[in-house]
Amino acid sequence: MEFAELIKTPRVDNVVLHRPFYPAVEGTLCLTGHHLILSSRQDNTEELWLLHSNIDAIDKRFVGPLGTIIIKCKDFRIIQLDIPGMEECLNIASSIEALSTLDSITLMYPFFYRPMFEVIEDGWHSFLPEQEFELCSSATSEWRLSYVNKEFAVCSSYPPIVIVPKVIDDEALRKVAMFRHGGRFPVLSYYHKKNGMVIMRSGQPLTGTNGRRCKEDEKLINATLRAGKRGYIVDTRPLNVAQQARAKGGGFEQEAHYPQWRRIHKSIERYHILQESLIKLVEACNDQTHNMDRWLSKLEASNWLTHIKEILTTACLAAQCLDREGASILIHGTEGTDSTLQVTSLAQIILEPRSRTIRGFEALIEREWLQAGHPFQQRCAQSAYCNSRQKWESPVFLLFLDCVWQILRQFPCSFEFNENFLIMLFEHAYASQFGTFLGNNESERCKLKLQQKTMSLWSWVNRPSELSKFTNPLFEANNLVIWPSVAPQSLQLWEGIFLRWNRSSKYLDEAYEEMVNIIEYNKELQAKVNILRRQLAELETEDGMQESP
Amino acid sequence: MEHIRTPKVENVRLVDGISSKKAALGTLYLTATHVIFVENAPDARKETWILHSQISTIEKQATTATGCPLLIRCKNFQLLQLVIPQERDCHDVHASLIRLARPVKYEELYCFSFNPKLDREEREQGWKLIDLGEEYKRMGLLDNYWQLSHVNRDYRVCDSYPTELYVPQSATAHIIVGSSKFRSRRRFPALSYYYRDNHASICRSSQPLSGFSARCLEDEQMLQAIRKANPGSDFIYVVDTRPKLNAMANRAAGKGYENEDNYSNIKFQFIGIENIHVMRSSLQKMLEVCELKSPTMSDFLWGLENSGWLRHIKAIMDAGIFIAKAVSEEGASVLVHCSDGWDRTAQVCSVASLLLDPHYRTLKGFMVLIEKDWISFGHKFNHRYGSLDGDPREISPVIDQFIECVWQLMEQFPCAFEFNERFLVHIQHHIYSCQFGNFLCNSQKERQELKIQERTYSLWAHLWKNRTDYMNPLFRADHRQTRDTLRLPAAPCNFMYKFWNGMYNRFEKGLQPRQSVTDYLMAVKEESQQLQEELEALEERLEKIQKVQLNSTKVKSKPSEPSKHSGFSTSDNSTANTPQDYSGNMKSFPSRSPSQGDEDSALILTQDNLKSSDPDLSANSDQESGVEDLSCRSPSGGECAPSEDSGKDRDSDEAVFLTA
């Protein structure tokens, strides 16, 4: 096993662990292939189990023979280990560095993890495209499943099965794929049962500087329009960026060729701009100086909430066009794997009650993020503390979760899941024992044989014991469209994520418990009353029967 | 009424709030106490009521094609724009409102005409609800250390203090009077709060007239007496809540602060809170940010930061936390003062008391706290909140800041307070409304002369009567955090303090959370209560029947009531809601009339109507449907407390996401 070579010192005694809000713990530090473990070897003292893949960066310091390693995690936690002995400390540090940056995916923990729980339902089969399609095919016959991408031949970032207009054959799809960035031809993202209108998503059209057009592409998207109706194309890039893209062979739909479509440009940022925003935000949150003004200006300078506002606004706009204007919508940016997915998935949260349930939300993530080819492996390789900035790291998914949290905060009774559910998804996207978020798309996942070799996150989450932690006690099914406010006054910093390790949540946890108690007590009473009513009714019938003859 | 030139103007357009896109056409009425706007729409006839005393500014804007706009800003942060067709009418309304919003005599205020249809006895009972004598007893003062002093009988020593005060046992009348002569406006040190657990106390006063070198033996003895009243500590803290520079500047005017060399065993401490002028302009700046039309995130955060508002809130909290810690952890008594000892001192003493004593975190205890530290100790309500026309430089949101501090604490300790956000919002409203007599005048002396208790009603009784609306469902009397001193982190972090959307934007319904956890939980609790009762009744009946059957007597019991527990009345699935303007200033969008009858806008939100004792106040009534019963509300008083202000029938942003 290769790991042994990387672990020069597997065990050190008398290591002291420092964490905010906890007393320091002295114990034995152990390194395994995938975990950093600190155990005090005392009963009822919590041990630290940290996945190496959760480690974003480390710092070392030496004072005499005492070494200190500061571990900065992808979930923004910072812990400190005091290690006696310089050599031990250096060995541990270099092992952690090596183990937290393994090149090969197949060496990651999910390939070694053996679940200690009974699998009730295999999550790999929980959200099959065919089943998802049934939900819309029951309402319309205008769409079909296409297997054109069976061997990932047409589009490497699409799943083998996609939903397309019935009138468009696979041959046409192949042609359209040639005209769209990354082969990402327009596919169905969401079917709005209320009016039969749809959200589609794709990559940018490859019009280039000479205004190339593709009849099949025009036919494909026009197939979603009713006679005399117009549709909207939401381009997540500002107009000038879309224009510049033409020089690199990309572009946007020109009015002349798409006369039935009205184009809207928004400006959702991507890549390193988001990554830098995250770095600045986390830095501001970790800054413990006591100056109120500096906090607000740092929060502002991070631009995080500006991104949140822009993404939410675009999603609301798309939802509004669909629901209020009764128009079909095509959404894309450049590749159609980042901002596009933020918008399509948030629009569904707003429009579709099912996506606000636990299962529905899981299905949404499966459909709109995993199947849709959001490159999780690249985007979540590093988090807020990384210093080697690669071009492809970006907290796109975290921004999406944050937006969902913002809506949840405004509609606290309309979601079946709670904040913890969103936090859990964030954690697993960055470091996990499950295979769900490994790889960049379905094609990679197939090659890695994740379904055979790793466990699905959903297999674990969807067991009653886990679900209870993620269920919102306030939930009451709300079948309406929910329109959030996107005004700055209504948007807040997501404390549950960004201040999680910087403040004690004791009192907030107590409040949550109290809330659960109030609702549980009500349910209990309800049950008791029902039993008594039934008993009484039975007795009274008996009574009546005795009387009747 | 002589100030009303035009009592009625037709075809006026009302634009309600900043985010509102739609103007309602209706008729404007001016009455002696209210501005009333009645919408023309035949099915709804929505009414908007504004109390004259809530009007902060009236701004005449440039005439447009549709008429002359009047912008009205209210002290409870409501913002309205009236567009009056005729220039002449606009001029008249403007002139009338300017006069009506600035009464010159107390008798013009609403509380002297407000009649909630209570008889004399009920009114008197109402005033007796909060009894400060009882409160000092509750604190558990020990007779050998503290005494009730009558030295200020008939306001002989200090006209802004109450007649009855607690002072240390060893402080003789001679010492008190001597000390009072050495303090601004004769506000000598007196007890604000006594911490029974360790005998430490919080006392308050104004600044000493120390100048650069003056001393006063009696004042030094007074501080000594405070120290002696706490046998557990050999020193007292003297906290000056002004910035050091301000305090030093005061020395030139013969005022200043205590010289540690002259007073034995004191520890002197500055905890800088800015003065009323800084606070006034800070609020002004923050409200300007709130008024921005579709601000970006940066506009908002920059504006919030530049206003300095949260920094000031933090300063007040820091001072309160310091004092609470000194008292509870160090067991040291604290003397607090600022300049006159009626603004910052009141803020800081009440924040500290709130942290120390769970009683003040109950509904009634909070009323007591305001009565004690604000009303009785001569906080100048009339000057600060502009009840009567006066010097605009005297106006400052001093108690607003205290109320916000309480809210910030509620956010940190959600189970520690018996009352909810609505309670705070309504108190803020009534400080300005002048509908009840509690907050009139600048001192107890003035209130007595005006015979407030005989001529007006008490807000506390009104709030107490409707207390079910103000309960925090998460409050549990047996929680640890409820029973104890609230302990904030040693180094309170900045991110603890947040913008209070529910106060400063409370009339902008579109900006508020669309579902209220508080209301939901209150409904659940209420239902549990009913279930509990039903359960008992059922058990009883069951027992009876079983007995009867045992005796084989045939008595037919009544059929049981059908079950009616289908969801809560606050049910959230009916949340009315419409999309906002998401398209910004995109010109390319076609305009479109709001889609009437869409399922998600046509449903009525029942959630807030439920809490109807102060219907027009409910901070989150989001009644876009406008189906409202207005029948019980008339300016002269109906069966429920009438017309505290408008906002009842808000048709906030309709389905207009498209700007033409």
TrEMBL record, chain A:
Record-linked Gene3D superfamilies: Pleckstrin-homology domain (PH domain)/Phosphotyrosine-binding domain (PTB)
Gene that this polypeptide is encoded by: MTMR9
GO-annotated biological processes: negative regulation of autophagy; phosphatidylinositol dephosphorylation; protein stabilization; regulation of phosphatidylinositol dephosphorylation
PANTHER family per record: MYOTUBULARIN-RELATED, MYOTUBULARIN-RELATED PROTEIN 9
Record's keyword annotation contains Cell membrane: yes
Transmembrane segments: none
Originating species: Catagonus wagneri
Gene Ontology cellular component annotations, sorted alphabetically: cytosol; endoplasmic reticulum; perinuclear region of cytoplasm; protein-containing complex; ruffle membrane
Coiled coil: 508-542
InterPro entries membership: Myotubularin, Myotubularin-like_Pase_dom, PH-GRAM_MTMR6-9, PH-like_dom_sf, Prot-tyrosine_phosphatase-like
Residue ranges annotated for the Myotubularin phosphatase domain, each copy included: 123-498
Localization of this protein: Cell projection, Ruffle membrane; Cytoplasm, Perinuclear region; Endoplasmic reticulum
Family that this chain belongs to: Belongs to the protein-tyrosine phosphatase family. Non-receptor class myotubularin subfamily.
Name recorded for this polypeptide: Myotubularin-related protein 9
Keywords: Acetylation, Cell membrane, Cell projection, Coiled coil, Cytoplasm, Endoplasmic reticulum, Membrane
Membrane disposition: Peripheral membrane protein
Top-level taxon in the UniProt lineage: Eukaryota
Molecular function in Gene Ontology: enzyme regulator activity; protein phosphatase binding
Automatic annotation (TrEMBL), chain B:
Residues at which substrate binds: 275-276, 338-344
Coiled-coil ranges from the UniProt annotation: 521-551
Chain segments carrying region Disordered: 551-660
Species this chain originates from: Catagonus wagneri (Chacoan peccary)
Catalytic residue list: 338 (phosphocysteine intermediate)
Start and end residues of each Tyrosine specific protein phosphatases domain: 307-351
Protein name per its UniProtKB record: Myotubularin related protein 7
SUPFAM superfamilies reported in the protein's UniProt record: (Phosphotyrosine protein) phosphatases II, PH domain-like
Domain Myotubularin phosphatase intervals: 126-504
Comp. bias (Polar residues): 566-596
GO CC term, one of those recorded: cytoplasm
Entry's family note: Belongs to the protein-tyrosine phosphatase family. Non-receptor class myotubularin subfamily.
Gene name in the database record: MTMR7
